[in-house]
Design goal:
CATH class: Alpha Beta
Shape: globular
Bound molecules: ligand NAX, adenosine-5'-diphosphate
Catalytic activity: (6S)-NADHX + ADP = AMP + phosphate + NADH + H(+); (6S)-NADPHX + ADP = AMP + phosphate + NADPH + H(+)
Domain YjeF C-terminal: 1-255
CATH superfamily: Ribokinase
Oligomer: single chain
EC number: 4.2.1.136
InterPro entries: CARKD, Ribokinase-like
CATH topology: UDP-N-acetylmuramoyl-L-alanine:D-glutamate ligase
Order of helices and strands: EHEHEEHEHHEHHHEEEHHHH
Helix content: 40-55%
Number of strands: 9
Structural class: alpha/beta
Strand content: 5-15%
Binding site for AMP: 168-172, 198
């Protein structure tokens, strides 16, 4: 894990570290945008660019975010996109992001709104991060069927979408598009079952993609760090998703020290 995590070289600058774009949030769910940015800022990219209707909420909490009024295609260069947390019904933004020739992480509403063929024809990597309910909807089966056969479900989704799939839950599974071994992460804690913790994970994984990790490594490393950060944050007591995000640096140090 330590070898996977990006570290800035002596001559690095913010652009060389990678810029991650976050297309998330809506009038109904501005918090999902804030939480995705909170994860992205701790994930190794040199800058976080935000597009969407929650720019004021994002800036109020994280003034270092580069907020754009334009849509994804005109927002400026990024090395990876995260699209979907709290996005509501903005299918046009999801379609625009999927056209970008950089890695894309699809989460939450982005999973529902993405056209299957638009994902399948992408040549840059796609990382999808469903929970069991979302995975079931994508496969057209009941949630219990996914929960009873999680390994088969993650493999099937990866094959059908030709994408890397990270299936969230008490353990997290990461399957690449080409078959082969599925990675299992068990660093988490049930205290992570709190609203918005998935949004933190998607920002973190997107940031690792922007920093240059492949989709399977970005998903695995994000799940590992997120689980550890959840443990540090909770330490036996209930916490909010923002608490998890704030402990990511400690989880990172735990891996690299
Ligand atoms: N702070 C925020 O702004 C947050 C926004 N979020 C956004 O909220 C939207 C919906 O996300 P979800 O993951 O909830 O979507 P889901 O589609 O998983 O949740 C809705 C479904 O969960 C089930 N459900 C809902 N409440 C339940 C309850 N109390 N008991 C049992 N089952 C229940 C129902 O079957 C419902 O159809 C997404 O856009 C997501 O990104 C979430 O990420 C949470 C945090
Ligand atoms: N029982 C559990 N044990 C460990 N991790 C969990 C458990 N339940 C949920 N998680 C983790 O918490 C996060 C929840 O994400 P998600 O379901 O997308 O919630 P939200 O949409 O509210 O952000 C995921 O990373 C998931 O793996």
């Amino acid at each position: 894990m330590a070898r996977l995590l990006p570290a800035p070289a002596a001559e690095s600058d913010k652009y060389r570290r990678g810029v991650v774009g976050i297309a998330a949030g809506s009038a109904r769910y501005p918090g999902a945008a804030v939480l995705a940015v909170s994860g992205a800022l701790r994930g190794g990219a040199g800058a976080v660019r935000y597009v969407g209707p929650a720019g004021d909420a994002v800036l109020a909490r994280f003034p270092e975010t580069l907020v754009s009024d334009a849509g994804p295609a005109k927002a400026g260069r990024v090395q990876a996109w995260v699209v979907g947390p709290g996005a509501g019904d903005d299918a046009a933004t999801v379609a625009e992001v999927l056209e970008a020739d950089v890695p894309v992480l699809l989460d939450a509403d982005g999973l529902r709104l993405a056209e299957r063929d638009a994902v399948r024809r992408r040549t840059a990597p796609t990382l999808m991060t469903p929970h069991a309910g979302e995975a079931a909807a994508l496969l057209g089966v009941r949630r219990e069927e996914v929960e009873d056969a999680r390994l088969a479900a993650v493999r099937e989704l990866a094959a059908v979408y030709r994408a890397t799939v990270l299936l969230k839950g008490s353990t997290t599974l990461v399957a690449g598009p080409g078959g082969g071994p599925v990675r299992v992460n068990a660093t988490g804690t049930p205290w992570l079952a709190t609203a918005g913790s998935g949004d933190v994970l998607s920002g973190l994984a997107g940031s690792l993609l922007a920093a240059g990790l492949g989709a399977v490594d970005a998903g695995s490393a994000a799940a590992y760090l997120h689980g550890l950060a959840g443990r540090f944050a909770a330490d036996g007591a209930p916490v909010g998703a923002h608490d998890v995000a704030s402990r990511i640096p400690e989880a990172w140090r735990d891996v690299t020290d």
